[in-house]
């Protein structure tokens, strides 16, 4: 543990008293296992009447609210929330079932203006937004840990290194769409928000001590104010193993199979990978089977698959085979922005020199500040500025255009100006 981390841990343990209030950190310095929520496992909220009680309780609570959500990634279609956990002083902990209570906009409105504490906020905000919960301000404990220089920023690692408690993380990848939810899972879910407020307070003090608190607040504001991400264009191109597919007709097979699989997965509400694997899609694309018998011989389409399913996938292959050349997908995607850096030396040696100088400078400053390079400035922003430097020389304005926050602009602009001029 670094000196900064020891300071944060000591401060937190002296001032927050996270976890069971009567326990102290043992003399051997080992983390204390956190096995039960302070008030026990709350009942799952799954009716409108129970939800109204929670809304009233949390509206009357004090201070920030800890928020978490559990999804069923790998089991269900999409990224919807299957459990929402909250904790606030004066209100305790609540576990809400979004299946029974699909509209949590009333809860979101009750918490309007309250700071939300989340861990890895960008992962949970999309599913929370779907059920009507959108924060106006937030504190991201994972991002705070990155900015403070912690080497491990998972929730369990942060709680252990900062607060001295060990969270049981054995249920993070379970199928949260299961009903009823087993008691051990509910205990795990409640403990995920048990110490978030304590962790937030300790990290705020550490960031302030390092002179990085304003940076963090700017980052949090950017996350809270960011619009929903637009739908990804041509998502079928992200099929694992796609790099093996070279011909346009084969690419059309991938597209047709991907779209057919997605429709089935959405209708059945299961993960697309449980319907048909990416590996099977790529095998079919490379082989372009002539009929069901040929398809059956391919990996992923074996004897366990029913005739009706095989005919469904072969029909998708046949649709791709029947497309006129003009409707076949083009190789690759239109590149928005600079080409891959590996091609710069041939395409524009001067730009390659600018990028090398900029990367070296950014890396050195990030190491000096003890934070990840990508948090100091995104690699894509550096590439864009180095590939096409601003005509008027206003690097700061260019950085702002690409979404850099004021603290990043202030720190990085001098580095990029020097890199752009030194290699001119």
UniProtKB/TrEMBL annotation:
Pfam families: DNA_pol_A_exo1, DNA_pol_A_exoN, HRDC. It comes from the Bacteria. Residues 1-27 are annotated as: Disordered. Residues 247-327 form the HRDC domain. InterPro entries: 3'-5'_exonuclease_dom, Exo_C, HRDC-like_sf, HRDC_dom, HRDC_dom_sf, RNase_D-like, RNaseH-like_sf, RNaseH_sf. This is Ribonuclease D.
